[in-house]
UniProtKB/TrEMBL annotation:
SUPFAM superfamilies: YggX-like (SSF111148). PANTHER family: FE(2+)-TRAFFICKING PROTEIN-RELATED. Keywords: Iron. This is Probable Fe(2+)-trafficking protein. Residues 83-103 are annotated as: Disordered.
Amino acid sequence: MVFCAKLRRELPGLARPPFPGELGQRIYEQVSQAAFDMWREHQTILINHYGLNLGDPMAREFLREQMEYFLFHDVQIMPEEWIPEDQRGTAAPPVKGAAPRKK
C-alpha cells in the first residue's frame, strides 16, 4: 500500500518500479497502481494525438516530463484541440464536392 501522490489516498501500489532510475523508484514508492493505469491511458492519448515516434529520444523525454507532471501535480493537461471520444460528433467530415456526373 502507498499513499498515492495522484489520488491522495492509501491504495495498492505497483508490484515493482515501472522502470529503472530515480523516477521509477519515486513512482514505485508514491504512486498507486490505479493512478499508474490512468497515466498509461493518458500516455496513449498523447502518443496518438501528437503522432509520437517512441524511437525518437525527444518523444521519450516529452513523455517522461508529461508522466512526472501527470502523476505528481494536481492538474491534468490535455493536448490542444483534443476532444474525448464520447464528446465527438458522429457526423461524417464535411464533403468538398460531389464526383463529376457521367454524361
